[in-house]
Amino acid sequence: MIPIVKKQAGLSIISLLIASSIGVFLIGGAGKVYVDSKSTFTARSAITAATESTRFAIQDLRRTLFMAGRNISESSDGPSAYAAADNGARTFPAVDDPDGIIDADTNGSSVIAIRYAGGPAPCGQAGTISATRTVRFYRDDNANLICQVVETDFAQPLVSGIVAMRALYGVDTDADDIANQYLTATEVEAANRWLNIVSIRIGIITSSGDGAELPPRYRPAAAEELDLLGMTFTAPDTSHFYKSASTTISLRNLHSSVQRQ
What we know:
This protein is α+β, with helices and mostly antiparallel strands. The protein has helices at residues 13-65, 74-77, 79-83, 185-191, and strands at residues 112-116, 119-120, 128-129, 133-139, 144-149, 154-160, 162-171, 181-183, 197-207, 225-228, 231-234, 242-250.
């Protein structure tokens, strides 16, 4: 018998081309999945950064502003205190004063200021206070929320990414401890209503900040317009995520409604 020798056949050019095409297709698909996943992760990181800045800002504002009026005597905080120059001891400092309340400062944001005379030390400091302290919150040129204690010349940044802040003051017009209208500080001053304030409503716009930009595919076509307590705020760019939020803080440590008649 004559042995039959089987010859091995190599890959044809067509088979090689088909295999290469399939490989390129699979690699391209995997690459697209990776790029899409990375873009989604980056976008979520930007949203999370703005959300966390919002949460921390509201938390810090609420913790301190809730103390407004605590341990301040009615003699220091009565009608005569608001009919004259700021005595340095009343709950609400003077309006448009370097150490007081400002509706809109040079960067367009409100400056919020209150006083209290007993309780936890403000601005993240340890311990308690037993003397009147003027605590101010404002936004600096680097978009940081600054907490300042006027009497001790202490100031420190609390939260970054704050691009705008606005405050309105809740006026109780029928002595039931519930705000019936919300006014700017200038409007409250003009109407001589500081003794009728029962709450503060704060609106803030936060940004995802440096290092947390939106991927190009997630950027809006035009700068977004956000609500800032009834005002329209236009985002300065489309490369970051911007978030609008507001909170209302009841001032339960003020004197009784008898004083606010």
